[in-house]
Amino acid sequence: GLDYFRMIAAVLIVAIHTSPLASFSATGDFIFTRIIARVAVPFFLVTSGFFLISRYSYNADKLRKFIKKTALIYAAAIVIYIPINIYNGYFSEDNLLPKIIKDIVFDGTLYHLWYLPAAIVGAVIAWYLVKQWAYRKAFAVTLVLYIVGLFGDSYYGIAENIPSLNSFYHLIFQVSDYTRNGIFFAPIFFVLGGYISDNKDKLSFKKSIIGFTTCFSLMFAEALTLHRFELQRHDSMYVFLLPSICFLFYFLMHFKGKNRAQLRTISLIIYIIHPFVIVLIRLFAKITHLQNALVENSLIHYLLVCIISAGLGLALTAIWNIYKPKKHNTDKDRAYLEIDLKNLEHNVRVLKNAMPPHCELMAVAKAECYGHGMYGTTVYLNQIGVSAFAVATIDEGIRLRKYGISGEILIMGYTSPMRARSEERF
Fold this sequence. Notes:
single chain, mainly alpha, 3-stranded parallel beta sheet, globular
């Protein structure tokens, strides 16, 4: 479900930058590009958070890899769009160095590239908040940031009429042109993605549909009301966008099946390359005098951009799969142990069903879960509802707390009174 929706989200982002219904209805185009399509970028952020953020994170390796990969993609995108920036006169503007720094950190060196630095900054903020304070406090902090962002975006019409807030946002806009960035916009979606990852089975299919339909309808009314009273500075951030994305994500996770990794790469390429395709189509239309057919007709223009961008994505993905460096799998060069987590879950359910009422299951996790791997095993048990663990020493208990394990931990061995204070830190 997530892999297929990546493609839908990618073409929705193309719609934001091409206004496919502008030739036919201004209201219809607003609804499509400024309401419906606004779920696309948050979906990508929640997806990244889903695979990156977890209250069970005990080292920053995944975060470092994410930052490195995103930074490399961002650097490549910056290089790709240098010719267009030269053509647009970007490098002849006043105060060029501060502008370049601001754009690289916040706004993107081309209008759509803001997402990449926002993803890096948002991931770092969310990762450390969840690691330090778990989800409730992390969500509270990022919600405050999001609310601040709201009044610099869709609700700016209110803030600009309050002198103190107007001055505050004026300072913000000296640093970033938008509050839709890695500080105010992205962190809460990363936190939301991590929470969903750690609570995958929280919503049924029916509840996710009802929830999304209700919240998206409320977001629809919210956006039209803001538009009616002309309160928006931009229209990227809505109050009901948050629950809409949450329910949408739970809904998509009910669609099981084989991973479609190629769609991930193709959707990324569509996102990165589509402004270049827009320029190429406009250039071709100008040379061939087909502006009326290929550009002025906004729907045809949009479809052409989508088709050509998807074609390039497919071609570049195929080339990458042929020439990408091959990784040698050394995991099974020696003896190895394979743990089937679904079988482990089955055993937990059988044991719980066989236990008397009011009796609680405690998982013994000492000695690396008897050689089965303490981290992977205890995290999965905690995720599926086991909330009591037994260890041999206080140091094993501390390790579980560092892993993010909640609930009761029984230390079966001797603990020196001198170590009593050690527990307070965890």
